[in-house]
Amino acid sequence: MKQIMNNETTDPSTDRLAEAELMSRVAARDHKAFDELSEKYSALIFSTAFKVLNHYEDTEDVMSEVLATIWKKAGTYHPKKGSLVTWICTTARNRSIDRVRSVQRRSALYGRFEEKLEGDAPEARTTGREALYLSDARQVLQTAVVALSPEQREVIELAYFEGLTQKQIAERIDSPLGTVKARIRRGVERLRVSINEKLDGEGELLLSSVSE
Question: What is the pTM of this model?
């Protein structure tokens, strides 16, 4: 009877080994393993992110980002440091907090940008001109970004459109901070000419957000 009871007792280390084996397969780019992981943990990722964001679409975006991070960084998971559930929840929570901060950062940026334009706008400026500055400035920047190289475009989009810091970008794309800074610097220089031509030199405030 004692032997039977011991066999029926759940050993936590067994689950930990199974999690490690699954992550090892994902790290080896086993798509079947990744599908298995996604099916098993997507609901957990979604609920963890939603508690922070309380926004359905943002939560879906974060869930996709977390799964992409797991696919890319599965090899960094070490079972001795904690369970896979803890690792995934921590990743989802941190990415959700980053999203909240980026939204706040963008909101503050747009507020400063529009206040700058409204405060400095000459009285003779036409309503159509003001509409361009206040409503289409973001589109002007987006159009200019398309012309950048893929590497420059990636870091500029993360810095401006997602509001990430240079350090956060380096972690996101798994590149040295110096490389990220160089790409942003070159990208900003290319954007500066294009944007200032369309915004009559008043695009500097937009670009300041990505060069911080």
Answer: 0.52
